[in-house]
Design a protein that fits this description.
Elements (H helix, E strand, L loop, with lengths): L1 H24 L8 H19 L7 H22 L4 H33 L3 H29 L9 H24 L5 H71 L7 H12 L10 H22 L1
Length: 311
């Protein structure tokens, strides 16, 4: 039992970050053989975590390096298991990292408070932490993750600098957490609680900022799509206008040729030809060029359809 506890105490971060990545990235388009890829990615992260224990020197700086390494390994795992560009993987792994760190700090703070005031046994604390951690990650997903999923952002067209800053904020939070844990030992519960609140609020602000970024990116993408549609409509309108002008010119020429037929063709046939030509030779002057073209097209279609039905 003690060996199992030591294993999870040493490698628990891997399981926490994998659970957070599952919540925040699990909805993305999966690559072929997803289950195999996921198992291999998890095994790689766990193997790195276990090998890390063999490093002869372990201090706050190496812990920060370890956190940074696992962040980029998580990005690689998401890229290996899910479709999508690198920017999307980095963006959502950043959110998963913030959620994991928030849940870690919240669970630790609650258990520290319970231990101080309720005198919980070490066994209860050990068993309670994993459950609390998963619960808080899930709450982060319900609050922020679903919004990020709804406003799915693939390419981060706004700015690469924004993505760089988000990653920097997430990593700095973890780095300062390691430094605080090192230098605040023995400072008392109040200092620990104050820093923990600051730490958790920073994670929540980071997640809220990402939600705002996805909203703006989604609006920008919709705006670009709308502009493209309007451009296509404008091009189609120009083509329709040119076609109508060309038809009117041809109809005018045909009318002149009909007038030269004289007695060679009966008056009834001439009137029939004129009615056929008049179907196309028409124009509107409403003051709105686009409306004029549209009305000519609709009237032309209606007259042609009526003529066909009459025949």
């Amino acid at each position: 039992m003690m060996a199992l506890y030591n294993f999870f105490e040493t490698n628990g971060y891997v399981f926490e970050i994998l659970i957070a990545v599952f919540f925040f990235c699990g909805w993305m388009d999966r690559r072929p053989r997803f289950l195999l890829r996921g198992c291999l990615a998890g095994a790689v992260l766990l193997a790195v975590s276990m090998l890390w224990t063999w490093i002869p020197f372990d201090n706050e700086w190496m812990k920060s390096v370890r956190t940074t390494l696992f962040f980029f390994l998580s990005v690689g795992a998401v890229r290996a298991c899910f479709e999508g560009p690198l920017r999307q993987a980095v963006f959502y792994v950043t959110a998963a990292g913030a959620a994991q760190h928030f849940s870690f700090r919240m669970a630790r703070t609650l258990l520290a408070s319970a231990d101080l005031y309720l005198k919980l046994s070490s066994r209860i604390s050990v068993l309670s932490y994993p459950a609390l951690s998963v619960i808080f990650v899930f709450l982060c997903y319900l609050t922020f993750g679903r919004e990020l999923r709804k406003k799915n952002v693939k390419y981060m067209t706004g700015s690469q600098t924004v993505l760089f800053l988000l990653v920097g904020m997430q990593l700095c939070t973890n780095v300062f957490q390691n430094l605080f844990d090192k230098f605040s030992t023995g400072s008392g519960f109040q200092v620990y609680t104050i820093y923990s609140l600051f730490d958790m609020i920073s994670c929540l602000f980071l997640l809220a900022l990402q939600c705002e970024i996805t909203r703006r990116e989604s609006e920008q993408q919709n705006s670009e799509i709308l502009q493209h549609i309007l451009y296509q409509q404008k091009q189609q309108m120009e083509i329709s206008k040119e076609n109508i002008e060309l038809i009117n010119i041809k109809c005018h020429d045909i009318k002149n040729q009909i007038a030269t037929l004289g007695s060679r063709v009966s008056q009834e046939e001439i009137r029939e030809l004129e009615r056929a030509v008049n179907i196309y030779d028409m124009a509107f002057k409403t003051g709105n060029e686009a409306l004029d073209v549209l009305m000519v097209e609709k009237l032309m279609y209606a007259k042609i359809k009526t003529s066909v039905l009459t025949v």
